[in-house]
Amino acid sequence: MNLFVFGIGYTAGHYLRHHAGHFDRIDGTVRSDDKVAALAADRIRALRFDPPEADPAIEGALADADALLVSVQPGPEGDPVLERFGAVIAEAPRLKRIAYLSTIGVYGDHGGAWIDEDVRPVPESERGRARLAVEERWLALDSRAGKQVAVLRLAGIYGPGRNAIEDLRDGSARRIDKPGQVFNRIHVDDIGRAISAALLHDGMGGAWNIADDEPAPAPDVVAYAAKLLGVAPPPLIPFAGAELSPMARSFYGANRRVANLRMKDDLGVRLGYPTYRDGLAALMAGEG
Q1: Is residue 105 a contact partner of residue 128, using CB atoms and an 8 Å limit?
Q2: What does the alpha-carbon distance between residue 209 and residue 151 come to, in Å, rounded to a whole number?
Q3: Most exposed of 88, 118, 158, 173 (fewest Cβ within 10 Å)?
Q4: Which intervals hold domain NAD-dependent epimerase/dehydratase (predicted)?
């Protein structure tokens, strides 16, 4: 099976490092040339795609692909992948399975209530509305072009090099206190399990929440990381007076508890890190 990846960044790159053995050939896109040599050493052909620039070899690689992983954020004009390569993807003769990495941000605010995939997304932010519109375009390829499309709505991503332990070590960790606010998270290893389920099996079309079992307040996560390090946690900062970027502040505007039962039942994903405590403890031990 041949795989093509749009957007070899943190999440897709981690997936390839741990799951490349499932595929006979892997091609993918990067935005700059500095990753090309490192990926080539892992037998991954990296092609530049930094709109409007695109390597001419991308179209040929898509024609040879059996599976497609898309890890690219929407741009000002919508989805840069569909805008440039939508027709090529729809007509790719071998391509049958597509996994599109989205976000639980499409759901918007639900006042801290539990929600699942039956809840209609109502994103308040322009960013969330753009993401939902892109989801719908990818899912339309199922009926329009006969492609199996799995939209994976990811919770807050953490993993090696990107977690509360590292934030404490580099001095960037803060504990923003907004009573009642919770967030779901997902370890990048568990995202990999979901991607493989979507790309390696038939009957995996639709949208799924990819999230942990325990939505929790952000200050609790930092406090637990501090406990693992044996240091005092940073003081609580009231949300109302916290200095936050507009994007960071927007994250606190949506409060929800995201259920993951269908991820387990439909995709067969068994979480390696069901809670943030499991994930952080493994990262601290060098195992996650």
Answers
A1: yes
A2: 9
A3: 118
A4: 94-211
Is the N-terminal amide bond of 52 cis, ω within 30° of 0? yes
Q: Is the pLDDT of residue 245 over 80?
A: yes
In a domain, 13, yes or no: yes
- Dump the DSSP string for 19-82: HGGG-SEEEEEESSGGGHHHHHHTTEEEEEEETTEE-THHHHHHHT-SEEEE----BTTB-HHH
DSSP single-letter state for residue 252: T
Contact in structure between 182 and 212 (CB atoms under 8 Å)? no
pLDDT tens digit string along 72-97?
A: 999 888 999 999 999 999 999 999 99
Residue 164 is given by DSSP the state H
Range of the domain at 112: 2-158+184-213+259-272
Residue 284 covered by a domain:
no
Let me know if residue 164 belongs to a domain.
no
Give domain status of residue 56, yes or no: yes
Per residue in 93-152, pLDDT (tens digit) is 999 999 999 999 999 999 999 999 999 999 988 899 999 999 999 999 988 889 999 999
Domain containing 85 — which CATH number?
Answer: 3.40.50.720
> What pLDDT was estimated at residue 288?
66
- Give the whole-angstrom CA distance, residue 96 versus residue 68: 8
Torsion angle defined by CA atoms of residues 247, 161, 99 and 112, in that order, rounded to the nearest 10 degrees: -50
Which whole number is the average pLDDT over 27-56? 92
Q: Give the amino acid at 214.
A: E
What pLDDT shows up at residue 35? 87
Q: State pTM to two decimals.
A: 0.96
Please answer whether residues 228 and 280 qualify as being in contact, where contact means their C-beta atoms are separated by less than 8 angstroms: yes
Query: What are the phi and psi torsion angles at 104 (to 5°)?
Result: -70, -5
